[in-house]
Amino acid sequence: MVPTPRVSRGTAPSLSPVTRPSTVDLIAVELRNAVYAGALPVGSAIREVEMSGQLGVSRGPFREAAQRLVQEGLLRSTPGRGLSVVRIGRDRVHELYEARASVETTAARIAVERATAVEVAAVRAAHDDLVVAERTEDARRVGDADLNVHWTLVAASGNPWLLRWMTTLIVEVRIASFTLSEEYAVRKDTAESHVDIVERFEARDADGLVSAIRANLDDAVLRLLAPESVEVETFDEPRPSSAPRLEPITPTFSEP
Amino acid sequence: MVPTPRVSRGTAPSLSPVTRPSTVDLIAVELRNAVYAGALPVGSAIREVEMSGQLGVSRGPFREAAQRLVQEGLLRSTPGRGLSVVRIGRDRVHELYEARASVETTAARIAVERATAVEVAAVRAAHDDLVVAERTEDARRVGDADLNVHWTLVAASGNPWLLRWMTTLIVEVRIASFTLSEEYAVRKDTAESHVDIVERFEARDADGLVSAIRANLDDAVLRLLAPESVEVETFDEPRPSSAPRLEPITPTFSEP
DNA sequence: TGCTGTCCCATTGTCGACAATCCCACTCGG
DNA sequence: CCGAGTGGGATTGTCGACAATGGGACAGCA
């Protein structure tokens, strides 16, 4: 599941403005998760009737939500041919990680300066999850937890722009992984260096944290581009369910 | 007019894959330009029937294009209330420029390393335009040219992610300007520091270039947040035409 | 006079339908 | 046997229509 930014009202007035997600929001989240999870294979075409049917909505709202992912660069829209999941091949990995490093290092410096105790704790917690996940040897769980550490760190910066970009980048990293592994595999991307990241962050050591992040990302690029590393674990069953099944959208009136 | 990224095939095979913009693409560009030009005032509601009518399309494609801008953060969609142009007030300017600095400085270092001669020349040309624009004393033209220098520099990095973000950031900077100036003004941003930027870039001096950019952006933030600076020029006529007029979409089969 | 409740209109959210386009399999001719 | 031409089926692109929601004006009551 892709972590999604939550609007956090900084101060606490007596009443905070109520905000509910639109149907398009819900569909977009569902779609993004589907791409992230590999339920929609990279490069594959997306049939609107089928998808919108599974979500329990008509093609109209579905197409609107899809355009959001097109803007994000996760989907591609070819005029007469419809939608398809993008590929991120070898040639683009370097640029992807340049962008990712830019966001993460900037966020790191800001977070070191301004993060609250609970935000620091959140990063630590995300790292704990990663450690637990690593024990399961489940490559996908590890990948999720890995990315979640990075996402949580960016979230700790409190910068909405960086967090928005990071939310998309996470999915693109996964797409790159899928693309390079030739058919729906998730690299077993265990990284020692995450310990450094969390420790440098807790120590509020900006330069050290940036270095740790850079090291981690460089390592990730190497693993990704390593030709058929043995460190890769492939799933015969690419998708959670054989058919790309999306949860139906129900106008949830959720209680906080 | 907002500069839009052009897909540039790096190598030159005998034939490059033909690609044409979808209708949604065209509408999105038109909408983005309208926001950028202030034709759609910040905070104002957007009436779908009116807008789509002016563009000569039905509400369907228009709504799809609008969702792209929602994803960018330029428009806001409130469930029962429809679309409106976002505001970027004092409290968010700092974060906006943090994000902008991240993109621009990263792009700068990459561009210094990898930019070709023509890309360097493009930045120089953009700067020349700025100098010319400054002579006209037209605040909006100066603003356009100013932002275009920065955009061209990011484009010179060749990184699609950075360029995509920059394309949105430019509009958000303009939105911030509109929001803070209380009704459709464009700050007269004299650009001494732009000379440094171009010179450091031409000299391929990465650190110097980054410093120049930082100085320029810090200066811009100060100008923006300076309470009612005298350096501001306000237009009584906020919009190019009194009614937000959008160019009709014609399925252009454009020749390169 | 000030507040509450109600009605109406404008606008949005959603859907189904039609036409245009594209892909694929088949057929025909060299 | 291989290529181009052709037709059918499926899918997308676009539109108009209907129901639902929200905002504002007006009337009623304390």
From TrEMBL, chains A, B:
PROSITE patterns: HTH_GNTR. The keyword Iron does not apply. Keywords: DNA-binding, Transcription, Transcription regulation. SUPFAM superfamilies: GntR ligand-binding domain-like, Winged helix' DNA-binding domain. Residues 233-256 are annotated as: Disordered. It comes from the Bacteria. PANTHER family: TRANSCRIPTIONAL REGULATOR, GNTR FAMILY, UXU OPERON TRANSCRIPTIONAL REGULATOR. This is GntR family transcriptional regulator.
